[in-house]
Specification:
The protein is an alpha+beta fold. 17% of the residues lie in helices and 33% in strands.
Amino acid sequence: MDKLLNGVAPLTHLGLIRAQGDDAAKFLHNQFTNDFVLLGQSEARLAGFCTAKGRLQASFIGFKRSPTDLLLVCSQDILAATLKRLSMFVLRAKVRLSDASSDFVLYGLSGDAVENATKNKAASADNAWAKVDFDDITFIRLYPADKVSRALWVAPAGSPAPAGATIPAERWAWSEVRSGIATVTAPIVAAFVPQMLNYESVGGVNFKKGCYPGQEVVARSQFRGTLKRRAYLAHAAVAMHVGSDVFVAGDDQPCGTVAQAAAAPTGGYDAIVSMQISAFEAGGVRLGAVDGPLLTLSAAPYPLLADI
């Protein structure tokens, strides 16, 4: 498995939103599921941007380049719409939002490339979302894939790529699935509350930070026991696509949705599927229809908040 994930992948499917100004951190804090006011220089944040009904319309990995300059990594296919939506809430806040995708390059590092990038540098922290700056370069630890280390590398446009063999884009996409953390893309905008993607269990929701759009729904789902869906890993012998429904026998209503999918290097497809907890426990979940291809399911590769 390690040999499949050793190297560097250009992340051209991701983009960057930049927030600059005296109120930048406060503004993002008031919009997202996570705390950006207390965000330190040695950490990043996974965060969601919810609708008023608590559904994720975007997700980000956010970090500070300085106290008044923050970057948000998100899926390129929703960046323009997300930037437009966020801009509607700026009002009198001292913050300027822009698409900074062309100002930076992003790479995914995996396996040996992670260790090589941090060799002889003060980046020994191996916990997810730890951040280290190398001059103008930002290094962020991600959740591993099948115990293989992974990281995000953000550098000014024109910077050389980090050292390491090139990983094909589809291989990195597979590692994202195997990490168990889904990124919101166009097909699943407004499909899930954060807990349906396990965000509260991987540092993506702060329940003490105060109000943001959809906060009451997100909190109620957590503390009133109303959450009935979780994210799980799935494998199928056939292609799986984001937004596809999954079913259990005898019920023509879907029990879940594919949130992220990628071809598996050893054959078939792997996916993150958000589904009813009862369906996962019962098994027999099928792709696309009640008589569709059978999915092989497994739990998320990290403990859920209730289990910690």
